[in-house]
Amino acid sequence: MKRNIVITIARQYGSGGRTVGEMLANDLGIHYYDHELIKLASEESGINESLFLETDERCRRTGFLRMPPDIYRGELIGPDSKDFTSEANLFNFQAKAIRKLAETCSCVIVGRAADFVLKDYENVLSVFVHAPHDFLVEQAAKVKSLPTDELERFMAKEDKYRAEYYEHHTGQKWTDAMNYDLCLDSSKLGFAKCVEAIKAHLKVRFGDDIFE
Predict the structure, then answer these.
(1) 39, 61, 87, 121: least CB-packed within 10 angstroms?
(2) Residue 197 to residues 20, 22, 193, 194, 203, Cα–Cα distance (Å)
(3) Cβ–Cβ < 8 Å for 165, 59
């Protein structure tokens, strides 16, 4: 690509947002970041990667509603503080890794409230991928072998976690279209056309020669 461009993708479970992100990264020849962000944050902070994973899992079990909001403002807590390995500071280090990526390379970043972390960066296009309930269930069933009622409960729990995670760290609603540059219904477009829609938007936003 002609300049460093970052595409952030938030997505409902079953919408194919991750697939769209992978397809887009492959099409553009740029890197795709999802779970790898935890490894980068671990390397950045010196905090063992397992602690990031354990904290994520604990928050999935308990949710964020019991914790007061902790909106990301760019700060980092030093190793001399008892809060160095707190959930909030682990997020801060993930955010630092995200910001470093935005400053050094073109890439696709999925999840981790990356759109909010990079909201002041001019080289970022934020995308939200969504779809109607029936389509989400149909797509989720392709990767999760569960009875429909169990699958729907799993999906609801997963999206609840994503919504709480986003609101906890941003103070904003995860599904609010105003938080994103582009919202795509993958049931109407299909994954390949979602990729094309994002590429078209990149051209409009950054110029017809962006891919040269």
Answers:
(1) 61
(2) 11, 15, 6, 5, 10
(3) yes
Token duo for residue 204: 């409009």
Domains of the chain: 6-204 (3.40.50.300)
Q: What is the DSSP string of 135-203?
A: HHHHHHTTT----HHHHHHHHHHHHHHHHHHHHHHHSS-TT-GGG-SEEEEHHHHHHHHHHHHHHHHHH
- Detail the DSSP E strand segments found in 16-79: 31-33
Residue 92 tokens, joined: 């801060």
Of the candidates 32, 28, 198, 191, which has an alpha carbon nearest to the alpha carbon of residue 114?
A: 32
Q: What are phi and psi of 52, to 5 degrees?
A: -60, -45
| Beta carbons of 161 and 60 less than 8 angstroms apart | yes
Q: What are phi and psi of 113, to 5 degrees?
A: 55, 35
Helix and strand numbers (H, E) in the chain are 8, 5
Residue 35 amino acid letter: H
Half-sphere exposure of 193 (CA within 13 A, CB side): 7
Q: What is the pLDDT of residues 79-135, one digit of tens each?
A: 888 889 888 889 999 999 999 999 999 999 999 999 999 999 999 999 999 999 999
Interval 129-167: pLDDT, tens: 999 999 999 999 999 989 999 999 999 999 999 999 999
Give pTM, 2 decimals: 0.91
